[in-house]
């Protein structure tokens, strides 16, 4: 059985590069199965989740890493977060009517709904944000960059070139195989010690080493990334055996959500009476988590009584 749902760090010793490979299988099915998203939106949610796991593995943190994209298109927001314990979740917010019009326009133009079309067609203009919240302190790091390029991967590359000035190579594939969602991403960057003297995005690396590594990375096909028949170690050896690839222990990834009844109640009881009454449906208020689709039901009058008494 080929292992899925993990992040694994590796080194290319000859080129002095560090990388990570992320693979998803059943976790993506579990996350996307909780929603009834149209296929292109499910695809983008899966991409965002995969990138969140990849990017968070670069960092030393004890808390939550969040990757969020917001735009002015029919897809208003993509959000994924990954805890330092390996728990991930993701969701999307979109305007159904505008989204359907966009799909009809794509169909009229006979344009395929590939990942390269999703970003501009559905997210429009906006930004992508990287946020790290530390569990043990109030320290918070956030990086924001414009949505730029044909895909979320392009946006991440743009972020590193503009904000971090670190040469970053990413190859990612997301799709369905035999009715099940799968995803894989491979990211290459400079070793940490080389980031002290960054020059033209290459640190102390010889330019030929970087170019060779990028050519090898780009040679990986979508089928190789997504097939359940090729183990991650085998895939890395196929790509980088001449570079002296060294792999480290895998960190498992699981689906999880932090919503619970007490959190939902805290939100409800801070609302004003007008907002509570606006949410009322036949004497009940139903709050549904956008991430996991779990619903919490409350008696409207009970909520109003607590709001009035606060």
Profile the largest sheet. 6 strands, mixed
Helix content: 25-40%
The count of strands amounts to 13
Number of helices: 11
> What is the subunit arrangement here?
single chain
How is the largest sheet built, in terms of strand order?
7-6-3-4-5-11
Strand content: 25-35%
Mean pLDDT: 87
Would you list the SSEs in sequence order as H and E?
EEHHEEEHHEEHEEHHHEEHHEEH
State the end-to-end CA separation.
55 Å
Structural class: alpha+beta
Gyration radius over CA: 21 Å
Tell the overall outline: elongated
Spans where pLDDT lies below 50 across 5 or more residues? 111-117, 194-205
Q: Layout of helices and strands, plus pairs?
A:
Elements: E1 6-12, E2 17-24, H1 26-33, H2 39-56, E3 63-71, E4 75-83, E5 87-94, H3 96-108, H4 115-123, E6 126-134, E7 140-146, H5 152-164, E8 169-177, E9 180-190, H6 207-218, H7 222-226, H8 232-240, E10 245-252, E11 254-255, H9 261-268, H10 273-279, E12 284-288, E13 295-299, H11 300-308
Helix pairs in contact: 2-4
